[in-house]
Design goal:
Layout lengths: L3 H10 L4 E2 L9 H14 L2 E2 L3 E4 L5 H4 L3 H21 L3 E5 L9 H22 L2 E4 L16 H11 L4 E6 H7 L3 H8 L3 E6 L15 H10 L6 E3 L7 H15 L3
Parallel strand pairs: 1-2, 3-4, 4-5, 5-6, 6-7, 7-8
Length: 254
Amino acid sequence: GNDVIDQIKFSADQGFTGWEDNGGNKRPVEEQTKIGETLQKLGMKMGVFVSWADFKTSDFVTKTDREFQDRLRAEARAAVEAAKRLGTPWTTVVPSTTNDRIDPNYQTANCITNLKVMAEICEPAGLVMVLEPLNWYANHPSLFLRSVPQAYAICKGVGSKSCKILDDLYHQQIDVGNLIPNMQKAWDEIAYIQTGDNPGRKEPGTGEINYKKIFEWLHERKYDGVIGMEHGNSKPGKEGEQAVIDAYRYCDSF
């Protein structure tokens, strides 16, 4: 059904221990609070919601003026309040597109400067911005942030426990690959994982990524965060829902 509370309860009944809602901060305030309370009662963790994602401009990597940074501060404050209601410590940040007329190093510096502004608000509140690198070739051409190594360098530049990496393995497989070695190298800055197989962006087992091996690797590292299922279903209706449930049970059976 369409009722988010019923969906959460159904997920709990199937053995899932986390929930993700990219648009959770856009829901009515009362509904946000109810989601947070329901997850707490069920012993489930709330994953990310998206607080900043600019797919149209290059502002985040080209502007550092007071007016723009005041806008960032306002968004960060709103994210802190939404996170309290939803009961999550993570929020997704996708900086902006790239600007081909400005050297990438200047854009990186601007990105770091602006993330520091947001971190000043997020860190005292215990909210972690997770930077999500997205692929160019299948979904998001011309975005500034493309890879885990790039995000790693930016996080080191920001130097805040409130600025970490969201490693979406679907996106990384398309543009970069080398999934486990890159997780290993960037592990101290990775705070969140998302899944989706490639090609197709459906549940694990429908593409080329060995998710069972990845889940085993995460388990060995004692990862206890949320694994966000940011993908579609390979089959329609109840059959498709069951296929997704079965896929994750398989990946978790090691």
